[in-house]
Design goal:
The chain is α/β, with parallel strands linked by helices and 222 residues long. It has one domain: NAD(P)-binding Rossmann-like Domain (Rossmann fold), CATH 3.40.50. Helices cover 41% and strands 17% of the residues. A six-stranded parallel beta sheet has the order 2-1-3-4-5-6, with helices on both faces. Helix 1 links the parallel strand 1 and strand 2. Helix 2 runs parallel beside helix 3. The longest helix has 22 residues. This is General stress protein 39. One of its GO terms (molecular function) is oxidoreductase activity. Belongs to the short-chain dehydrogenases/reductases (SDR) family. Its EC number is 1.-.-.-. It is an enzyme of class 1 (oxidoreductase).
Length: 222
């Protein structure tokens, strides 16, 4: 890929899919600014994000892979405070980052958001994740019009083997993976490298904006 003189910002780039993507970009010689809670950036805090982009200055591409804990459960059982906190990070955090970054993105640049297959796959007891991801996909198309000629796209990953699942017991995680592998047409779960390729496509193709790329092993077919 062409990374000459390109500057990238990867928010959520210290782990999982974001770290994989940042590593690929760096391997190509690109200048990459990586940020996350681990580096001291709270994307739910407007002033924190404002000062972060002020320190970066002009750049070409913003990729947001930062997620959040989203409580699972039926609408009658989930605590609204937890649901709102999840929105504050993944949804409002992404909006906050896009808002502040737009002032610094160069001509021909882009913003790539991250949603998830639950935006369009109906699964009981997942309304919080579903709502966040669906909102991000809807906003992707609006921002693509508002911020043009900055391109705005999104990647929608399916189940992926990342640190996000390492809080589960080994038995529970392996059972989840095995069930998914049996149900998916590709008969395996996603790896971070699989998902990173979709971001690279959106970064490289100057004729793509307002689109959502599904990388889910065929989960939406079931």
């Amino acid at each position: 890929m062409q990374t000459d003189n390109q500057i990238y910002v990867v928010i959520g780039g210290t782990s999982g899919i974001g770290a994989e993507l940042a590593g690929l970009l760096k391997a190509e010689g690109a200048q990459v600014h990586v940020a996350s809670r681990r580096t001291g950036l709270d994307i739910s805090d407007e002033q924190s994000v404002y000062h972060f982009f002020e320190s970066v200055g002009a750049f070409d591409h913003l990729i947001i892979t930062a997620g959040s804990f989203a409580p699972a459960g039926r609408v009658v059982d989930v605590e609204l405070a937890q649901a709102k906190a999840a929105f504050d990070t993944k949804f409002w955090g992404a909006i906050n980052a896009a808002k502040q970054a737009a002032r610094y993105i160069k001509h021909g640049g882009s913003i790539t958001l991250t949603s998830g297959m639950l935006a369009r796959k109906v699964v009981a007891a997942t309304y919080v994740k579903t709502a966040i991801n669906a909102a991000l996909e809807a906003v992707t198309r609006v921002l693509a019009k508002e911020l043009a000629p900055i391109r705005v796209n999104a990647v929608s990953p399916g189940l992926t083997d990342t640190q996000a699942h390492h809080g589960m017991s080994d038995e529970a995680r392996n059972t989840m993976y095995q069930r998914a592998e049996a149900a998916l047409p590709v008969k395996r779960i996603g790896q971070t490298a699989d998902i990173a390729m979709a971001y690279l496509l959106l970064l490289q193709n100057p004729y793509m904006t307002g689109v959502v790329i599904d990388v889910d092993g065929g989960a939406l077919l079931n």
